[in-house]
Specification:
The chain is about 35% helix and about 10% strand. By secondary structure, the protein is α+β, with helices and mostly antiparallel strands. It folds into 2 domains: about 150 residues, PA2201 C-terminal domain-like (Orthogonal Bundle), CATH 1.10.3920; about 140 residues, no CATH class. The protein has a 5-stranded antiparallel beta sheet with strand order 1-3-2-5-4. Helix 5 runs antiparallel to helix 6. The longest helix has 15 residues. The chain is globular and about 60 Å long.
Length: about 300
């Protein structure tokens, strides 16, 4: 809504209303903060966190480049839209979104709003399937405030640590493949899955672990979960959102992305595993070499030969 408001050059009062919603919901997202700050409506919050790190953390590169070299920033914008933006949403399973009510397309309105604010040359994206080029150039009367990210200091805003607990009491075997920083998360997830009504569970977790992008409606989730056989998949989704698990589309080669796979085992000798879900996505993680867990609830786990991948 914020991006569309900027692209359509809505009345300032409408953007101000949206800032109140952002503050109320404590959204804490760097892209949202930049858009609102640049709109020069009195909004001053600025974070270095992203609601979804992949792909949105890469927008910072575009913003920073635009401050020193708009031509290079335009090139980075093109690369982002052509090679990174859609891939960064594979975990949302957008391939079926066109079947859902209210479908309007796979549009990167926030990227278009950034291009408008930064006055970037976006002609190379005129025919891009996900970039609303015409909206960027629909109006050109709104004035934006120059935002220099280097003037903001984020040293006290490190990533919030998960609450550390001693183990995963609801399934201790998972401690072999899940780093301690997420024990609390997984404990709570298991407990809630086993004790909450499906509708309540869906509402609690639809944003925090991304299930609202897999099942657009609570009813869809409830139907899929009729046999109560989704817990392993839900844990995979939760740890994918937190960048422990790397998710790739079946068409993507692991070789191209393996360097982006984070290792949270503090120098321990590790091996690569794959979580086998019943969809067209592939999920990978580094785990301790001695870990030997054949499955995580309904999700089968297989070792991946890294030498074959490379």
């Amino acid at each position: 809504m914020i991006s569309l408001g900027i692209l359509l050059e809505t009345e300032i009062k409408n953007l101000v209303s949206l800032t109140k919603l952002v503050e109320k919901e404590n959204m804490n997202d760097a892209v949202i903060d930049f858009l609102l700050c640049a709109s020069d409506i009195g909004y001053t919050n600025m974070t270095n966190r992203y609601y979804k790190e992949n792909p949105y953390v890469k927008t910072r590169e575009i913003i920073e480049l635009a401050q020193i070299d708009k031509k290079e920033a335009s090139k980075r914008l093109q690369t982002y839209m052509e090679k990174e933006w859609f891939k960064g949403h594979y975990d949302y399973e957008w391939k079926n979104a066109h079947k859902e009510p209210g479908y309007v397309g796979y549009w990167s309105f926030e990227t278009a709003a950034l291009a408008k604010i930064l006055e970037l040359d976006d002609i190379s994206l005129k025919d891009n399937n996900h970039y609303p080029y015409d909206l960027v150039h629909y109006k050109n009367t709104m004035k934006f405030k120059h935002i220099n990210l280097s003037e903001y200091h984020f040293e006290d805003e490190t990533e919030e640590n998960e609450k550390i607990v001693e183990g995963i009491e609801n399934n201790p075997a998972l401690e072999n493949i899940i780093p301690p920083k997420w024990y609390s998360l997984v404990n709570e997830l298991i407990h809630d899955y086993e004790n909450m009504e499906d509708s309540s569970f869906y509402e609690k977790y639809k944003k925090t672990i991304g299930i609202g992008q897999v099942w657009f409606l609570s009813q869809e989730y409830e139907e899929e979960n009729e046999q109560k056989n989704l817990l392993g998949s839900l844990i995979v989704f939760a740890l994918t959102v937190r960048d422990y698990i790397l998710q790739l589309d079946y068409k993507e080669d692991l070789e191209d992305y393996i360097d982006n796979l984070k290792n949270f085992w503090n120098g321990s000798e590790t091996k690569l595993i794959q979580f086998i879900l019943e969809n067209d996505q592939n999920h990978y993680a580094w785990v301790p070499k001695e870990a030997n867990i054949p499955n995580m609830y309904e999700v089968k786990i297989e070792r991946v030969d890294v030498e074959e991948v490379l």
